[in-house]
Design brief:
Layout (H helix, E strand, L loop, with lengths): L1 H31 L6 H36 L5 H28 L7 H7 L2 H15 L3
Helix pairs in contact: 1-2, 1-3, 1-4, 2-3, 3-5
């Protein structure tokens, strides 16, 4: 029964984490269009910081903790599909780290990237998610 509760927690954490990974680049797109020092820019800074620190970081931590428990308890660590999933989750975590870096740049009014860049990278977590879901559901190898 504990396994099922941890699995539910994992799914909830993943959904929360994915929501933030998909929303933060959209905030960056809008932030690019706000003049430096404007009230709008300062509001975006606050929104980005709160989203990352209060939702994304805890959701990622819960995703990892619950996921590692499920892998261990389910004995999935020997499966090829789990190794591939693990690689994609590491990539997702790296993307999370990049978003934190971009948030810190915006916080200091560094704007080295364009709206177009953030529109394009907004697709990265969705593509990783598709791969992860296919691996977990289909278990192709």
């Amino acid at each position: 029964m504990l396994y099922l509760w941890i699995k539910a927690l994992h799914i909830i954490a993943v959904i929360s984490w994915m929501a933030t990974l998909l929303y933060l680049p959209r905030l960056f797109v809008y932030h690019c269009g706000a003049p430096v020092g404007s009230q709008q820019s300062e509001t975006f800074k606050l929104m980005e910081k709160r989203l990352l620190r209060q939702i994304a970081n805890p959701a990622m931590a819960l995703t990892w903790l619950a996921g590692l428990y499920l892998v261990w308890d389910g004995g999935w660590y020997t499966q090829g599909w789990m190794h591939a999933k693990f690689a994609l989750v590491i990539a997702m975590s790296a993307f999370h780290g990049m978003q934190a870096k971009w948030m810190r740049e915006f916080a200091t009014d560094q704007r080295g990237r364009t709206e177009r860049f953030f529109r394009m990278v907004n697709e990265v977590p969705a593509l990783l998610m598709i791969g992860i879901v296919i691996l977990v559901v289909v278990k192709p190898f």
